[in-house]
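Why do we care about 3D structure at all? Because function follows from shape, and shape follows, mostly, from sequence. That is the central idea of this module. The next example makes it concrete: a single protein chain, its amino acid sequence, and then its structure expressed as tokens.
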Amino acid sequence: MDIAEVAKRSGVRASTLRFYEEKGLIASLGPAGARRRFDPRVLDQLALIALGQAAGFSLDEIGAMFAADGQTSIDRQMLSAKADEIDRMVKRLNAMSSGLRHAAVCPAPSHGECPTFQRLLRAAAAGALERHGKKARVGRHATR
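And the structure:
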């Protein structure tokens, strides 16, 4: 397939395909300088690149998922570590979401008077939400 067909079938721009080739993520067939042609398996490689990017892997990490012949060679330990990282991120995002939802409906006269919101501010200032991925406790409190 030529580069235009790969771009059309994959949804990846030709300039991105050339960039991926420069990074060693994909390889074209034939001599350098000629119109780029690719083996149809490049579509699977591009799908893996897209999946890896969606999961938060860097292009260098994704490159390590390919053997020299373009076949996949994925380190399962790396996948497990990324899943753990995503789990921590989900916990942080849930904590943020809970805090925002509380702040949106908080019965306190102002956010400055809300003990729960103040606890969230202190946790954020201390970096607890980012560093530890711990969900800040959001409790109900009586209105004043």
